[in-house]
Structures are given as structure tokens and as C-alpha cells.
Amino acid sequence: MGFRYFVQRAAHSLGLTGWVRNLDDGDVEVYAAGNSAQLSELAGMLWKGPQWAEVRAVDESETPLEQHRGFFIKH
After folding, report:
1. CA 44 to CA 20: how far, in whole Å?
2. Is the Cβ–Cβ distance between 2 and 26 less than 8 Å?
3. pLDDT tens digits, residue range 26-57?
4. Residues 62-69: what's their mean pLDDT?
5. Which of 6, 42, 45, 50 has the smallest C-beta neighbourhood within 10 Å, fewest atoms?
6. What's the rounded Cα separation, in Å, for the pair 22 and 13?
């Protein structure tokens, strides 16, 4: 399973809305909306990633709220 699909499944299981996408530099960007407990749980899951992943950093910042239905992969 790829990292974006891992994030999508994790966010969905936590009841979050938002999106995930690959960036040109190889990083993965995640926008997630939910309560602080849900977002903290997602951050912990991102640090682990799928079994094969090598996660070097998880940077968190607040951004303007976006309205989404569900959690999807941006292409």
C-alpha cells in the first residue's frame, strides 16, 4: 500500500475530512480537519507510516478551514 493510501485509510478510520497528495520534491502533504484528539492520533500514525515507509519528519501547522466531504487523494 502506498503512503497516500495509508493516510487516506487512517484519516477515514478516525473520521477526518481532507486530502493527501504527493509533492514534486517527494514529500507528502496532508490536509486534515477534525478535533484535536483525532488530529493527534493521525499525526502519530503518520510518524509510523505503512510498514515499508521511512518517515523522516511530520510537520504540523494550522491552515484556513476547508470544507470537504470525506478524505480523498489529490492527483
Report:
1. 16
2. no
3. 899 999 999 999 999 999 999 999 988 889 99
4. 93
5. 50
6. 21
Q: Round to whole Å and give the CA distance between 75 and 63.
A: 20
State whether the Cα torsion 23-71-61-59 is positive or negative. negative
**Among 37, 30, 27, residue whose Cα is nearest residue 63:** 30
How confident is the model at residue 53, as a pLDDT?
87
* Domains delineated in the chain: 3-73 (3.30.70.100)
Residues classed as catalytic: 4, 22
pTM of the model: 0.91
Q: What percent of the chain has pLDDT over 70?
A: 99
